[in-house]
Design goal:
321 residues; alpha/beta; Trna Endonuclease, Chain: A, domain 1; Helix Hairpins; 10% strand
Length: 321
């Protein structure tokens, strides 16, 4: 019996040995769970790496970012603020440049006005130069001036704005007196333009009929004499009292200053006084104003008397030194 059971026992042991050997080579449940967790970690890390690889780099700081455009959000905001500062700086420079150009233009206009001291110099202006002179005088008085010009101006050369009001101007560079037909036609243009006030301005003067028509209407008639006074600053800037047929207010006359009349300094020598006298009198010689209207001839006569008075006074002072 003992010998008969030997082979069966050996076969059973062999089977158990093989099963044990197979169990030792297979992973356990815990090992499988650990491997799964590691795979999940690797997959997550891979996705993150891929996302970072897909993210753009900021053109300015080179940092990765998501979104539209070439810049990250901080850089985009910084650039926007910088652009705003640059824009404001450019605007300030342009305003400063425009102010400087305006000041230079005003200085040029002032110099041009001061060069016109006589009726003859006023008459030498061209039509556009005369309009420019009148525009500069109104600008100096605080108006915003728009020049119309051209054949379609309908009798209006300048449009003036001051506050909410609109005034209109017609410029006439004439040597003969302005008659009532011109003023009547201008009055119609003024009404059509719905203007508050109108100005007819000429290098000459106005006839009695023109003055009669303008009386009682919102029209100012400004003659060559008035223009010279206007240039000198001795002329009212208020439209209600400037020139015109029904002007009730006249400016206070300036104190007589012989040095100013002759245009010389207060330490001028006698020969300088005589030269200035000859120069000023040449502008108002009767032969030079004979072609002008009666009103302008009267002005020239008064000016000549003023020049003589200044000369006699200054020569007397020079002799007493």
């Amino acid at each position: 019996m003992t010998h008969g059971s030997g082979p069966a026992t050996n076969h059973s042991d062999s089977i158990q040995s093989k099963a044990s050997s197979q169990n030792e080579g297979s992973p356990t449940t815990n090992e499988l769970l650990g491997i799964g967790a590691l795979l999940l970690i690797l997959i997550g890390a891979s996705k993150k790496i891929l996302e970072e690889l897909r993210a753009k780099s900021c053109t300015r700081c080179r940092s990765p970012f998501k979104g539209e455009g070439p810049y990250c959000r901080p850089c985009d905001e910084s650039l926007r603020q910088e652009a705003q500062r640059n824009y404001e700086a450019r605007q300030a420079q342009e305003r400063a440049r425009a102010d400087e150009q305006r000041r230079q233009r005003e200085k040029e206009e002032e110099r041009a006005r001061k060069r016109i001291r006589t009726m003859e110099e006023l008459h030498r202006l061209t039509g556009p130069q005369f309009e420019e002179l009148i525009a500069s005088l109104f600008t100096k008085d605080g108006y915003k001036v728009h020049r119309c010009g051209g054949s379609g101006d309908e009798g209006i050369d300048l449009i003036l704005k001051i506050g909410d009001f609109k005034d209109v101007v017609q410029c006439k560079r004439w040597r003969n007196d302005i008659g009532s037909p011109i003023v009547r036609e201008f009055y119609g243009s003024m009404m059509h333009a719905n203007a508050r006030h109108g100005y007819v301005i000429t290098t000459a003067s106005f006839s009695q009929s023109a003055a009669s028509f303008a009386r009682g209407k919102p029209i100012s008639l400004i003659s060559g004499i008035d223009i010279l006074r206007w240039i000198e600053g001795n002329f009212p800037s208020d439209h209600s009292s400037r020139g015109g047929a029904d002007s009730a207010h006249q400016p206070e006359p300036k104190a007589f200053d012989p040095y100013e009349v002759l245009g010389i300094s207060r330490d001028a020598r006698p020969e300088e006084i005589k030269a200035a006298y000859r120069r000023e009198m040449a502008n108002y010689h009767p032969d030079k104003v004979a072609h002008l209207g009666p009103e302008l001839q009267k002005l020239a006569n008064r000016k000549a008397q003023e020049i003589n008075r200044a000369y006699e006074y200054l020569i007397g002072v020079a002799s007493a030194r």
